[in-house]
Amino acid sequence: MSEQQQAAVLDQYKLYVEMADRVSARRSLANTFFLSVNTAAASIGGWLNASLPGRPKSTLTILLFVLLTQTATWYAILRSYRQLSSAKFRVIGALEEGLPASPYWRAEWKALGSGTDKRLYWPMTRLEQWVPAAFAIAYISLFITAVA
């Protein structure tokens, strides 16, 4: 490979690493958005439950449906970001094959036990998917309590 080709690969590698970092930043923004939406929705649901006479089941059922749809969407988006990040890091690894060092693919990932040893590393993308599931369970529990 010529020096010019090596420089081009290095430039592509730098750009791709930056793009992978941007995906992580967008995932973080999505989490912030959905946490805010859930906080607001839970507040509104609590207010509706306390202020509406007789607690109409239809209103609470619609609210539950909206909240469960929203948490399912959140979960799906997080799953999609996880898949996208995984693909990006595989491409980074392939690019690192042509570089003198492999900080992400070989060094860091190997130091973390390739994500299989939870004592070394528990992938955040797996952990964060429990958050929408926890909200969904809480919403179902609150709905059951409210209509009982």
Textual characterization of the structure:
The longest helix has 49 residues, at 3-51. The mean pLDDT is 85. By secondary structure, this protein is mainly alpha-helical. The protein has five helices and no strands. It has one domain (3-147).
Mean pLDDT: 85
Measured as a percent range, the helix fraction is over 70%
Terminus-to-terminus distance = 72 Å
Largest sheet: none
Instruction: Look at the helices and sheets and give the structural class.
Output: mainly alpha
SSE succession? HHHHH
Count of beta strands: 0
Determine the number of helices (DSSP H or I, runs of at least 4 residues): 5
Gyration radius, rounded: 22 Å
Strand percent estimate: under 5%
Number of domain units? 1
Low-pLDDT ranges: none
The coarse overall form would be elongated
Secondary-structure map:
Elements (H helix, E strand, L loop, with lengths): L2 H49 L5 H40 L6 H9 L12 H5 L1 H18 L1
